[in-house]
């Protein structure tokens, strides 16, 4: 079960990376369009940028960014406060480690719950992006899923009890 969850978390991070590449690609195309427009203006032509660029980037950034949180958690790539805790006694370091794991799990679950309510509210209000007219709620379940995976990643990490990070902060 844990192995399958780890594989799912890896796949989800790759999915987020692909979405990020799409964002970069449409940004490059849009910037190139503006540069071409500046040149075309010299000859009296007008080349518009990508219509709805801001809409697409706005909704896709939320999908891509949160998709990488679970993998980051699983790889201990999140921010740690080692500078302040490295000189503390081992019991304080262990306590800090476990408190951070519990808080991470609670925050991730809290975000998943809030995003679920937000998805329902956005759907019932019929909110759409301004230019493209895309329903915003369609992109929000992926954020809920990412937060749940993030909580599971923190649970897996806590269950291991002997992860690299804990050794780095003085645990067993």
Overview of this protein structure:
The chain has helices at residues 2-42, 53-67, 69-74, 82-85, 90-125, 140-160, 164-168. It is mainly α and 172 residues long. It has one domain. The two termini are 25 Å apart.
In short:
The chain has helices at residues 2-42, 53-67, 69-74, 82-85, 90-125, 140-160, 164-168. The protein is an all-alpha fold.
Mean pLDDT: 88
Order of helices and strands: HHHHHHH
What overall geometry do the principal axes of the alpha carbons give? elongated
Question: How far is it from the N-terminal to the C-terminal residue, by CA?
Answer: 25 Å
What ranges have pLDDT less than 50 throughout 5 or more consecutive residues? 162-172
The percent of residues in helical segments reads over 70%
Class by helix and strand content? mainly alpha
Q: If you compute it from the alpha carbons, what radius of gyration comes out, rounded to the nearest whole angstrom? A: 21 Å
Major sheet size, sense and barrel closure = none
Count structural domains: 1
Question: How would you describe this structure in keywords?
Answer:
mainly alpha, single chain, 7 helices
Topology, pairings included?
Layout: H1 2-42, H2 53-67, H3 69-74, H4 82-85, H5 90-125, H6 140-160, H7 164-168
Helix pairs in contact: 1-2, 1-6, 2-6, 5-6
